[in-house]
Amino acid sequence: MSLARTLATARRVLLQLRHDPRTVALIMLVPCVLETLLRLIYTHHRAAFDEAGAPLLAFFPLTTVFLVTSIALLRERVSGTLERLLTTPIGRLELLGGYALSFGLLAAVQATLVSALTLGPLGLRVNGPVVVLVVLAICVAVLGTGLGLLASAFARSEFQVVQFFPVIVIPQLLLCGLLIARQRMPVGLHAISDVLPLSYAVDGMHHLSRQAGTSLALWGDIAIVLAFAAGALLLGAVTLRRRTD
Amino acid sequence: MKAVDIDGLRVVRGGRVVLSGVDLSLSAGRVIGLFGPSGSGKSTLIRSIAGVQSRVEGTVSVFGAEPGSAAARRAVGYMTQASSIYEDLTIAENVGYFAALRGADVGSVLERVQLDPWSGQLVRNLSGGQRARVSLAAALVGEPQLLLLDEPTVGLDPLLRRDLWSLFRELVSEGAALLVSSHVLDEGRHCDELILLREGRVVAQLTPAELSRRTGTDDLDEAFIRLIEAA
């Protein structure tokens, strides 16, 4: 592993984003607008906002980072830059690490911004430490990078890669415990939700919004989210073929 | 050691035999031109040496190493047929990135491909000819020992083509091995050695002078036609 090549890749991805300010603005603003919308929907149901607001802070970075990462890597594949990169000294894990680092950083800024808005002006009430909430949101963003990189390995066109969003992300949203507590789902569905990473992110967010302080269970949830992220990155590196037809 | 050794290379793509029974050996210090009509297998041959072509049978080695291995990747600078550079980065940012991957500096590469006056320009605002040179610069950076250039002169004006061929001459005099493909046979006169490819087979590997002697003409296009008709 060469840290220099990973950092060079992260820097290159961030430079590409700097030349595309509209995308950066959308990534930063859209979740803020959606949390505001949620607050307005629950104008007369303040408790419901407190219940849904925190889990959605984990969901937004997952969606934006998943889409941006999967499309960015697909563009590398289609434009031929990926083929060229695979003939240079950079290793596959170094390349994906660069992606995870740059989009992770972008997502960290996004998560901080949305959390500040939601906890400040929008008045979301949480009992746990705010710093841990932001850390969990950032971990989910790194997970989004991993899943996005993995999804792009199975797509050959923009049309295909966008279709992985309803396949990979939406079922997790339905099963994560946001709509109905996971314990109240049929046994089979509960078992499926146990192997989906967003479930643990939402468990963690519920913990933070309901209970003061942290616990082993909360750190366990965060560790599981990070383990899924690392697993997705490794799997992405394995499925990235150097030789193509 | 030879820069590239190929023995019994055969590649099948989409059920079609693209390369078959290719034996080649390429030395450093010579401009080696890979010529043949489109569809003759030039790009597939270059991709096989670069280590990105799947379903390769036979053996290919780059300075004794397996193509695509870490050792081979340190030695190879590859310019694909499509420009394969980042549209949303400037010239300097593109070349700087590929330099960083090799642990090298950009150095004088931009001057050598005559792009230094525009280094701050975004690639998406460049002409096709300029993009081709950014792509070339990205392959040259870090002084790789083996340069694989897939049609680097296509679509360029005559003046620029002449300058690039003299750049290739300079690069090999500095010790690089250079394989450059083109479908314009006339460009063969700039090469020390010609590899003529047709329907996935090597028709001949010879010097331009030998080609003229064997076919009785100085017109390389005509010489190639005669060689194929004789075969």
Output the keywords:
heterodimer, A: about 240 residues, mainly alpha, 10 helices, about 0% strand, globular, B: about 230 residues, alpha/beta, Rossmann fold, six-stranded mixed β-sheet, three-stranded antiparallel β-sheet, 9 strands, about 25% strand
Summarize the structure in words.
The complex is a heterodimer of chains A (245) and B (231). Chain A has helices at residues 3-18, 21-41, 46-79, 81-85, 92-119, 130-153, 158-175, 187-194, 197-210, 216-239. Chain A has 245 residues and is mainly alpha-helical. In chain A, 44% of the residues are buried. Chain A has one domain (3-239). The mean pLDDT of chain A is 93. The two termini of chain A are 27 Å apart. Chain B has 231 residues and is α/β, with parallel strands linked by helices. Chain B has one domain (4-230): P-loop containing nucleotide triphosphate hydrolases (Rossmann fold, 3-Layer(aba) Sandwich). Chain B has eight helices and nine strands. In chain B, helix 3 packs parallel to helix 5 and helix 7 (208-215) crosses helix 8. Chain A binds chain B through residues 4-5, 8-9, 11-12, 15-16, 19-20, 79-81, 83-91, 241-245, and chain B through 13-14, 50-56, 68, 70, 73-74, 76, 78, 80, 82-89, 93, 97-98, 100-103, 122, 138.
Number of domains of chain B: 1
The CATH class label of chain B is Alpha Beta
Structural class of chain A: mainly alpha
- CATH fold topology of chain B: Rossmann fold
Q: What's the mean pLDDT score of chain A? A: 93
Terminal Cα separation of chain A, in Å? 27 Å
Largest beta-sheet details of chain B:
6 strands, mixed
The poorly predicted ranges of chain B are none
The chain-level structural class of chain B is alpha/beta
Radius of gyration of chain B: 17 Å
Bulk shape of chain B: globular
This entry's quaternary arrangement is: heterodimer
Counting structural domains of chain A, the number is 1
Strand content of chain B: 25-35%
Distance between the termini of chain B: 32 Å
Residue fraction in strands of chain A: under 5%
